[in-house]
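Re: that chain you flagged

S.,

Sorry for the slow reply, it's been a week of failed gels. I finally had a moment to sit down with the sequence you sent. For the record, here it is as I used it:
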Amino acid sequence: MTKLDEFHDAEEKRGRAEANRLLFTWLSDDAARADLYRCLLKSSEVLKFQSRAGNKERRTPEIPSEFHQEVYLLAKRKHVVKALTDPKFSSSPYSALGSGTFMLGLDDEKNIEQSKFASKYLRYDARIIDALASVAFDAAAVLPSKQRNFDLVNAAEQCALHFAGFLYGFEQADHVLLEKTMRAAHIGADYQIMGRHFVSEPGDVPNATTALGALLQRVAQLIDIYRARIGQTEEDTYKRLGQELKELRQEMGKSMGSPPLELEPVLRRIATQTLSGVKADYTGNELAVIVVGLIAGSIGNIQAGASIAINQFFSDAALIAGAQDAAVKWQLGETGDGPLYDLIWEALRLNPPVPFLPRKTKEAIDLGDSTVIPKDRNVILAVGAATRDFKPDPDCFNANRKERDPLIFGGPEGTGAFPHQCVGEHLAMPVIARIVRGVLLLDGLAETLNPRTGELFRLEKSWGVNCTKYPLQFNRTSVLTQFPLIVIMKVKNPVSVHAEALKEIIKYGAPKIEKKLRDAGHVHFAWLLFLENDTKLMLSTIYDRDFDSYIEYFALQIGSLFDLIFPHIEDAPPMPVSEFPKEFVDTIRHYNHRTAAGYFFSAYPMADVSMITHQFPPEDQ
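Prediction finished late last night. Pasting the structure tokens below so you have them in one place:
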């Protein structure tokens, strides 16, 4: 039984609501969705299903109901292209996000005019974009590189946010605002595109509208600041923007091995209308709407694109090995970006960053094959089906396909300037590629195991649209050898008695601690500190490599000293410590604190103690 047969069987026997739920499970799962697409591409049928949007039905027959309406899922390439190019299809479903804050909510001529204007102001030399992508990736990689495990979805999002902040000319302090607003906007957009037809989460769209409004206000402020400063606060902001831009240009130059690159941010370009022959009489609010719409689209594409590509590569051992080889060759300058780009495009052909696009019919549409979509009907474009249509072995990953399908970013063939296409495609792909290359180059890169099931974690998506989580791991010691240890333990009551005893123990034990730390050969620094009026004792060290081996060494070597310390500490491990080394390790692990946000800086990240002491022997100091 095919997926279409299953759908109609569920519709007939269990009702349209049950068929809706069945369809949703398929669309939310990559493998099931691909199976459904195979059926739809072979069939002459256009799948029609009942939406869950709303919970009442109007009884006025001449007014089409907006509740429990029928939705059409277009899968064939010719139908998707028609919906993207035919003015009888409207992008009005986006307007629920706020036509005053989201450019795609401005339909028809106004949308086309603003999109064309925006696309011209987003044109930059490829060297500028590549340099920006590298600087953004380096900024986003700071925190993930400190830990063995990291979330690729979050890391890709951070890279996209940094890239957008740099490109558009935000203050660095605006990063948090961009992060919060874009997350809410993505959830709201995904709900409006897809989720509302299958689930009921009515707060998503209002939250997105509020978030977009907050970003709109900030963008309008920055446009005014770039255009003309009124007060001292604006002048101060303008100076900070100038200093940050100077530093950014220098970093871009370093990444390209050249002098500082002359980037002019989008907001300054738009505010001052500096591009010759590209001027328009837009208000500050209209300009802000254009910018917010561009940012919302590009960040989601970058985050999803990088996550989807890596997830696809890990589906096959030979494929991930080939991708890593292409990344190495690209880094070495042997092949340029071609091979890895081709692999990424093929991965995104199978699962586009934005798998669905919403449209609504302005009048009855005849699709042929005896299919007519009535006026005022919601339509979902299954982009991932259209990118498979008319392809040999459409469901197979073909590393040699070497096709860059414009539909992947929402634009039909031969229409790179088409207004409904993602105008940031030429911006998104270099950043996606830079993220993918950087991740593939990580030593020991691997997917992680779910400790409950023993299965590998794969890319998680919400509603089959929004990438939410993808845990990965790598050999962290290949980029940072040292680790911080921050153990904070409570001193027993009465504090005055036990704290004084501890101070005495540390004082007369210092020579032994000093000798054992030096003999260990893997401790860079160590110190003890009393906190909160002597109620807590903090032990901090910077050490090399493995935690368990490091801590167990001290259990065996200076356990007798810890046997004196622990009677004054709450919840101490069993003693003597030397006879219970594993319990000692567990206790230290329990009281070990992570640094804030996992951040830890080292001026010599790859130098271990032996390297440093060889260069600077203790007797020479």
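What I noticed first: The chain is about 50% helix and 10% strand.

Talk soon,
D.
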